Amino acid sequence: MENDGDTIFDAVVVGSGFAGMSAALNLSLNGKKVCIIEARDRIGGRVNTGYANDGHSFEFGATWVCPGQDEILGLIEKYNLKTKEQFFDANHILNCLGKKRVYSDGTTPPVGVLGRMDLSYILNKLNSVAMRIPIEDPWNADHAKWFDSITLETYLKKHTTWTQIGKTSIDLNIRTLFCCEPDEISALYALWFIHANQGLLSLFQAQHATIVGGTRQVLDCMLEEMKQTGNVTLVLETPINKIEQHEDYVEVTNLTTQKSYKGRYCVCAVPPPLIPSIEFVPPLSPEHIALRQRMPMGNVIKTITRFSRPFWRENGFSGLSLSDSGPLCETYDYCDMDNEFYALIGFIAGNDCITWRQYGEEERKNEILEQFRNLYESDEAYNATEHYEFDWNSEVFTRGGYFAGLTPGTLTKWGDQLRNSHGSVYFASTETATKWSGYMDGAIQSGRVVAEKIVEKL
After folding, report:
1. Does the bond joining 388 to the residue before it have cis omega, within 30 degrees of 0?
2. pTM of the prediction?
3. Are the CB atoms for 72 and 218 separated by under 8 Å?
4. Which of 282, 237, 273 shows the shortest CA–CA distance to 427?
5. Which homologous superfamily does the CATH classification assign to the domain defined by 8-46+214-296+407-457?
6. DSSP state, 432?
7. Would you state the pLDDT for residue 1?
8. How confident is the model at residue 2 (pLDDT cuts 50, 70, 90)?
9. Are 50 and 213 spatial neighbours (Cβ–Cβ below 8 Å)?
10. Which CATH number, 1.10.405.10, 3.60.60.10, 2.30.30.210, 1.20.1250.20, labels domain 111-204?
């Protein structure tokens, strides 16, 4: 369906990540005419599938799915795609406080009796308190203002005072989950996040499987299904700077080219911190702006390093590591043994990302290879055949990863604006989801929910 410049669609969708594509798919399948407008030269948003020299796919962005993520798993089944379970069948590594601790799947890292007691206590405490936080309206939780007035760091200090290994292990897990430090996010938000993601056990098992052939395939299939309805127009390389509501339609405009697109409704499906940079007419409420200004994205650089053989597996390691030294705080095996693709994924997150971003890519690569050598006990680590990295904070249309967290005081003051519409403009992103927030599944849910509301209006 082509746009003649005067066409008024049933909806314009700004952003083509999973949230925007989910909204557009559900609208188009309900017979509604939709225009998807994307700032980049590709669809996907925080999904960004890359390709190695031989064409093998890998993920710079969203990678894993797991049981309980019914939205994304439903699409994978619908489009006859396949998943491959993450390799964990070997030894894992907890490398912190100057010591490498090796353990196997299903067991606890050897952190000593007091360390195990410390970890067990705080993890159980976090989980039990989180399950009492209402998912739909966490600002109405018992003692919500107190939880929201302190950082997660303050809350953890109150409950982990026995061992340094306990504190360091928890801090590492927080850094890998949120791509920030515990002193940057509200305790109430962190507890809500745990509940929205089915508890800590689910979060720790979220790296269950990858999508064979790449995550981008799901989005491509969604787009193809929309095209078959004849109800969709896709516009790329068109950042939207202005969203103006008229009496009978909403107009979204790129102020540089003056290209505009009109719809009876608008779905704004961009990361929350980018929303205040868009001019809204009439303006967003001060409360709505205040919320988005206090939702910073995390800091993360994702790396993919390829080798001629999986030496870590040969040495009895799964590739899973958590580390407080070296650039990478977390690593995973990313092998496709059938196609001779042997690689490790790594994450530079939180304060480590801020520090290592000051160095050049080649220097980061050399330090990463050194870290692999020390973790997996093989000089083969120096013989990487390909190395890629993606700095999500330098991505102008995302500004960080994996998702936006909430600072202290935000949920109780302005949290009720999170899923509120602005006239005929609706907001969808993984951050607005009530289940699997921060993940692909949450993004898909958020788009579907918004589409259902618009269908009811049309």
Report:
1. no
2. 0.96
3. yes
4. 273
5. FAD/NAD(P)-binding domain (3.50.50.60)
6. G
7. 40
8. very low
9. no
10. 1.10.405.10
